[in-house]
Each structure stands twice: as C-alpha cells, then as structure tokens.
Amino acid sequence: MTLTVRLPLRVEQELARYCVERKVTKSAAVKQALDGLLRNDAGGAKPSAYELGIDLFGASPRNDEEAVDIALNSKRLLREHFRNRKG
C-alpha cells in the first residue's frame, strides 16, 4: 500500500538524521514506528510504569517463595552478601 504523508520540516529533518545514523530507509523507519505504535496501543491499554522499566530493574526472584525469603530476610542476605565480597 502506498501512503503519502505531509511532515513538518522539523520532523522531516529528524527522520532524515535518524535514517542516516541507523542506515535505514525512511520507509523502513516509518514502518517500524507505526508497528511499535500500533502494537503498544493494542487493546487501548497503556503500559504500566513497571512494564516500561522492566529491562532496567535488577534481577527478580525466580518464584514467590524466593520473593518472600528476600523480603523477610533482607538484612541477613545483605550482610552475607557484603561479607562474602572480595576486593
């Protein structure tokens, strides 16, 4: 399908810079942007703050039992961690 879109000069310049830096065509960049926009908007639900930052958080517990252990024993676990550090 062919689609014609009028872009403000600023957006056109930013798109051109983006494409040069990443070595992609304008069509490919627009397709990727639309795909991301439509995928994120599926169902009308916006991602939560947790979903937006999940890749930035540290390791999470493998199961509920481990999560409870961390919560109940955080002081002991931190003490053990820092005692075992070498350096």
What is the compact description of this entry?
With 87 residues, the chain is an all-alpha fold. It has 5 helices and no strands.
How many strands? 0
What is the radius of gyration computed over CA atoms, rounded to a whole number of angstroms?
A: 23 Å
Q: Can you give the helix content as a percent range?
A: 55-70%
Low-confidence stretches: none
Quick one: biggest sheet? Answer: none
Strand content: under 5%
Shape: elongated
* Order of H and E elements: HHHHH
Could you state the oligomeric state of the chains shown? single chain
| SS-based class | mainly alpha
Q: What is the averaged pLDDT score?
A: 82
Question: Could you explain how this protein is built, in words?
Answer:
- Helix content is 61%, strand content 0%.
- It is elongated.
- The chain has one domain.
- It contains 5 helices and no strands.
- 0% of the residues are buried.
- It is an all-alpha fold and 87 residues long.
